[in-house]
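Help needed: design a sequence for this.
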């Protein structure tokens, strides 16, 4: 978790350097979000590289890098998980009211083809790869060495949810559990990243076509 904390500090530093109001994420442009995302994910990736060098039970071969990419499976799982998250989010909204994530509001408010491209490259590309590397290949993988799948998936998914806004904790937890199951079965970082990227891409594309969904 040290690498994740350092990555968040990098976001704060990037916000100060580029004068980005990180306290108002819902008002940020795609370019500003890309800067913060790059700062966080590059730092997190570097932290994981260091961790690989000092943790004796964590080897590059254990991270699913060499496992084949199952394109059809990744896309299908991503689409199903997106649907599951929507069902959970709607049920949650019916009980406690609608509280859209700040980044969703920002994506809906700043619609443009360049902005959509930035969202897809970072949100469905960079973020998907780095988060799957951190939360599934490393965190879930280390927990799985010590406990049963159910507990390893629950803990890694809870931490995955905590990395997001509180309003999204329940659907994100469900996504994390589904992605942990996919990694358990295929041990493929790339298939997991494709599934993660697919569900993020669906959200960005729908917000671009139907911006009122973000309200």
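Sure. Designed sequence:
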């Amino acid at each position: 978790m040290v690498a994740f904390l350092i990555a968040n500090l990098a976001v704060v530093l990037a916000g100060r350097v580029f004068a980005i109001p990180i306290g108002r994420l819902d008002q940020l442009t795609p370019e500003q979000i890309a800067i913060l995302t790059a700062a966080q994910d590059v730092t997190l990736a570097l932290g994981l590289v260091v961790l690989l060098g000092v943790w004796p039970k964590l080897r590059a071969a254990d991270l699913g890098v060499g496992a084949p990419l199952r394109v059809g499976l990744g896309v299908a799982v991503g689409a199903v998980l997106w649907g599951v998250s929507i069902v959970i989010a709607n049920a949650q909204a019916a009980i406690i009211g609608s509280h859209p994530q700040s980044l969703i509001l920002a994506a809906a408010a700043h619609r443009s083809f360049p902005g959509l491209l930035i969202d897809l490259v970072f949100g469905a590309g960079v973020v998907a790869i780095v988060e799957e590397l951190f939360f599934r290949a490393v965190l879930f993988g280390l927990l799985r060495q010590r406990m049963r799948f159910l507990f390893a998936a629950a803990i890694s998914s809870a931490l995955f949810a905590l990395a997001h806004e509180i309003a999204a904790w329940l659907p994100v937890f469900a996504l994390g559990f589904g992605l942990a199951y996919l990694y358990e079965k295929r041990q493929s970082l790339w298939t997991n990243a494709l599934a993660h990227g697919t569900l993020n891409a669906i959200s960005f594309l729908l917000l671009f076509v139907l911006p009122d969904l973000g309200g």
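The helical segments are 2-17, 30-54, 71-96, 102-109, 113-144, 149-162, 169-186, 189-209.
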